[in-house]
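Re: [ENG-882] Designed sequences occasionally contain unexpected residues at chain ends

Forwarding the minimal case from QA. Structure tokens:
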């Protein structure tokens, strides 16, 4: 019994250590790189009346308050401010295919970092943060709330969540659950490897109700397998093994063609649904594509 408790304590200590490491890194990135950009890239719920003030050169004449202008015999305009508060949700893929890397946690660690950076940006703008985990037929819902403590709870749960063997990526089910769970419009980051099909219509329907942003995690080895002879690969979602000869140029070309086809299909699906997409390769800094995404959204506002 004591041995079991000691193991549990060590696992908890290691978990908290990993979460703390992610928190420290994410706080610096969020403060340095997203100050102002996040606010500009994501719209609030609308505009509300703030006050009436004297007209100034350059003010839009459409906002002149004619009643006040007539009463004071001086032009005055109505001033509006953005109703800022948002609910930011993360739809997180925790299927078996996220078990990637030498320690089988490369994608999950990256997901947790990205989640933490974006959550801190949301918290700094006084937005609520929530999450939905999906894995196979399993769903887990964390209601939206404010504060860094709540954001770090989501990060901790991502790191601690089991990745069930044989659990497939069901984006369509995850998106359908999202629409059922959220009654009000939210900004939703879908973080996944998107190794799935048949989610085009649910993605389009979800984006009609919410503001969906797709963040695709990928590794370059998926596209360019090394020339290392005969190797056995396993599909993490089905558990099926397959031997391939990486020395054969035809095999490598077929592998690359399959990857590129999937990439193009995802690009077309997101474009058709009106969803912004950022591709985040595991061997590169994810901040640059995120900043490009933010700038693109800011310019479109």
């Amino acid at each position: 019994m004591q041995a079991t408790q000691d193991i549990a304590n060590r696992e908890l200590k290691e978990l908290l250590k990993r979460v703390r490491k992610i928190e420290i890194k994410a706080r610096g990135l969020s403060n340095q790189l997203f100050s102002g950009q996040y606010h500009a890239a994501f719209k609030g719920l609308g505009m509300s009346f703030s006050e009436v003030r004297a007209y100034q050169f350059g003010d839009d004449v459409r906002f002149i308050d004619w009643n006040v202008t007539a009463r004071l015999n001086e032009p005055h305009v109505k001033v509006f401010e953005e109703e800022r508060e948002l609910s930011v949700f993360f739809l997180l893929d925790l299927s078996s295919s996220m078990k990637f890397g030498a320690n089988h946690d490369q994608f999950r660690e990256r997901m947790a970092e990205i989640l933490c950076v974006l959550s801190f940006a949301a918290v700094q703008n006084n937005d609520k943060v929530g999450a939905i985990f999906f894995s196979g037929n399993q769903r887990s819902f964390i209601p939206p709330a404010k504060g860094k403590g709540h954001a770090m709870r989501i990060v901790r749960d991502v790191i601690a969540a089991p990745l069930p063997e044989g659990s497939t990526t069901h984006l369509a089910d995850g998106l359908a659950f999202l629409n059922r769970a959220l009654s009000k419009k939210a900004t939703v980051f879908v973080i996944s490897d998107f190794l799935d099909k048949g989610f085009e219509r649910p993605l389009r329907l979800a984006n009609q109700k919410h503001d969906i942003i797709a963040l695709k995690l990928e590794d370059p080895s998926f596209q360019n397998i090394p020339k290392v002879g005969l190797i056995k690969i396993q599909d993490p979602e089905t558990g099926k093994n397959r031997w391939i000869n990486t020395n054969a140029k035809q095999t490598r070309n077929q592998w690359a063609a399959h990857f590129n086809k999937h990439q193009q299909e995802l690009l077309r699906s997101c474009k058709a649904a009106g969803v912004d997409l950022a591709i985040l390769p595991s061997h590169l800094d994810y901040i640059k594509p995120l900043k490009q995404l933010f700038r693109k959204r800011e310019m479109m506002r």
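QA comment: On inspection the terminal residues look reasonable. The chain has two domains: 17-39+85-300, 47-83. Proposing we downgrade this to a documentation issue.
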